[in-house]
Amino acid sequence: SPQEDPVLIRPFRAHTAAVTGVAFNANAAGLVTCSVDRFLILWKLETQCRAYKFAGHAEAVTSVSFSPDGQVVASSSHDHTVRLWIPCIRGDSSVLKGHTASVRSVSFSHDGYSLVSASNDKLIKIWSVCYHRLLFTLFHHTGWVRCAKFSPDGRIIASCGEDKSINIWDTRNKICVNTFSDYEGFATFVDFNPSGTCVASAGTNNTVKLWDIRMNKLLQHFKVHRGGVNCVSFHPSGNYLITASNDGTLKILDLLGERLLYTLHGHKGPVLCVAFSKGGEKFASGGADAQV
C-alpha cells in the first residue's frame, strides 16, 4: 500500500524505443506495454515466464488498454488504426479503421463492451468490442485530441486536447455537456477517480489538476514536477494519485492530505506512462529510455 515505501520489483527490458503505454491485466499477474518500436509486449510478472511480442502496427504504438476481464488488449497507433488482440491466441489482431490521423489513446469501458479512441483528426470514436465496428463519433474538439476515458459507470466520457480544453461528454445523448478550459497549457492525459466524481488531468505546464464533474469546478491543483506531466493513475482507494513526468520522476500524491508522499527516480529521461494494478498493490511505468 502507499503507506509502505515503494520497492522496485524488477525492470523489464525488451523494447528498443520509448515505452508509451502500460496496463495490468485483471489479476495483476500480467502486464502489457506498447512502444514507439511498433510492438506490444505481454509480460508475466513471474520472472521465469517469457514475454510475448505482438507485431501488427505499421508505426509507433501510442497507448494500450486491457479489457476488464483480461481477455482482450486494445492498442492505438500513429498508423491511424486501433487494434484488438486476444493475448491467449498469439498472432493476429483485428483492425478498427475510421480515424484519418494518428490515434493517440484507446481505453475500454468498465463493462468491457465498448472502446473509446482519441485522435489527431480531432475526433473521439466509440467502438463495439464484440462486433469490431464503429458505434458513434463525438465532435467538439478544435485541436488534436490526446486522450479519452470512460467514467466507471460508462455514462460519461472525459477527453482532453491541444485546444486547451477538457470536455465532458454524455454517452447516451452523444453530446458535450461541459468544458473545462485550461489556458496555461494543454492537458495530455485524463482519468476518472474510482468513484467517477472527478477527473484528473496531466498538463504540459508541469501541473496535475483535479476537476469536480458534479460541481463543475477545479478541486485541486498540484505543481510538484519540473517538467510536463504525461500520465496519471488513481490508486483504487481514490486517495492517492501517481504521476509520470518529463522531469524523469514519478510522484505519489496524497489527495486527502493534499501533499506529495514520494518521489521515485529510476528512468533515464522522461517518464511517459504509469498505471496502478487493479488492486493497487503494484504499479508500472514506462519511459523514453525504453525501460519498464
From TrEMBL:
InterPro entries: WD40/YVTN_repeat-like_dom_sf (IPR015943), WD40_PAC1 (IPR020472), WD40_repeat_CS (IPR019775), WD40_repeat_dom_sf (IPR036322), WD40_rpt (IPR001680), WDR55/POC1 (IPR050505). The keyword Coiled coil applies. One of its GO terms (biological process) is cilium assembly. Keywords: Coiled coil, Cytoplasm, Cytoskeleton, Repeat, WD repeat. It is found in: Cytoplasm, Cytoskeleton, Microtubule organizing center, Centrosome, Centriole. WD repeats lie at residues 12-53, 54-85, 96-129, 138-179, 180-221, 222-263, 264-292. SUPFAM superfamilies: WD40 repeat-like. Gene3D superfamilies: YVTN repeat-like/Quinoprotein amine dehydrogenase. It comes from the Eukaryota. One of its GO terms (cellular component) is centriole. Pfam families: WD40. Belongs to the WD repeat POC1 family. This is POC1 centriolar protein homolog B.
